[in-house]
Every structure is written in C-alpha cells, then in structure tokens.
Amino acid sequence: MSGLYEDFVPTFVQIVEAQLGLVEKAEAFCAAKGVAPAALLEERLAADMLPLKFQFQMVSRHSAGAIAHFTGKTAPQPGGDSFEAIRRSLNDALSFLEAVKPSDLAGAENKPIALEMRSGVMNFTGRDYLAGFAMPNFMFHAATGYAILRKVGVEIGKRDFMGKIPTAA
User: Fold this and answer.
1) Distance CA 50, CA 145 (A)
2) What pLDDT is attached to residue 80?
3) Which positions ≥6 away from 90 have C-beta within 8 Å?
4) Average confidence (pLDDT) over 155-160
5) From residue 159, how far is each of 31, 97, 152 by CA, in Å?
6) Model's pTM, two decimal places?
7) Number of other CB atoms surrounding residue 115 within 10 Å
8) What is the pLDDT of residues 58-109, one digit of tens each?
C-alpha cells in the first residue's frame, strides 16, 4: 500500500485538468451552436439532479476540499455561474492540489476525519475518507458533468473525460 498522496492527489489533478478541457469544449459548443452558456450550465441529466455548473463546482470541492482536511490549509471555495468563474474555480483547485507535497499527507492514513452531514456525523480514517467518500463523490460529479455535456451534443469522448493519462517514462 502506498501513501495517500500517491494514491489520490495525482488522480485528482488528472481529472481536474480534464474538466478544464471539458469547459473549453462546452464553451466552443455554445459558440458554434448559438447556445447560451447560462442555459448549458443549467442542463441536468434528470429533473431531480443538480445542473452542470454544480457538477463542476463539486469536482473542485471534492478534490481540493478533500485534501485540505490533511494539510491544515483552507481549500479554495468553488463557485460560479459562468464558464469563466467555473474555470477559475477549477484552476484554483488545481493550484491547491499542485502545491500539496507527499509529506503533507505522510502518515495520515489513520487520521480521524469527522464530517458533519444532515443525517449526523460521519467518522472516517484518512484513507477510508479519501477512498470511500471523497474520491467516489469526486468521480460521480466529474462523470455526471461529462454525461450532461454528451447528452446535449458536445462532441467529447472517454479520452476527454480521462485527460492526460500518466504512463511510465
């Protein structure tokens, strides 16, 4: 078993970078098809799901926000009702993640993490929090945003979702 940094931070970085690429493609789609950006950012997969802008915001929250539990630093707050604001939010999350060092997470596998939820407090160890809560939430919102873009006709594929795939040099 490797450390928390190696197991989680590179994946967060990879997918946040890919989400930035999806934002670019979504903007280009709006320009090419005459779609109002605000309308696209309000698109949903289903009526009871939250819109595209929320999916991008949660990618930021569940990446930088998750790692902030270990660093003692305040994560950037996601937000944005425009592509510009969403891009800024994703870039802020990316900058936060890129500033993290392996030593910031060293030995934190068993660090207690308590999350206050509407249903009560959820208690985790550091590894269980990242593996069982933060990463699944992060991937859910990244995939949901991708699916919304596919649904409306943005020409993207799996490689756009995955971004730059790390390979052996």
Assistant:
1) 10
2) 82
3) 16, 19, 20, 23, 56, 59, 60
4) 97
5) 22, 22, 18
6) 0.94
7) 13
8) 999 999 999 999 998 999 988 889 999 999 999 999 999 999 999 999 999 9
Residue with tokens 């999916």: 55
Residue 19: closest CA among 78, 67, 66, 102? 78
Residue 120 region by backbone torsions, left for phi larger than 0, else alpha for psi between -120 and 50, else beta: left
- 110: DSSP letter: T
Listed residue (57, 117, 116, 120) closest to 89, CA to CA: 57
User: Which DSSP letter does residue 123 get?
Assistant: E
Encoded tokens for 163: 């971004």
What would the mean pLDDT of 139-150 be, rounded to a whole number? 98
What angle do the packed helices 4-33 and 135-152 form, to 10 degrees? 20
Distance CA 123, CA 119 (A): 12
Structure tokens at 25: 């493609």
Amino acid (1-letter code) at residue 62: H
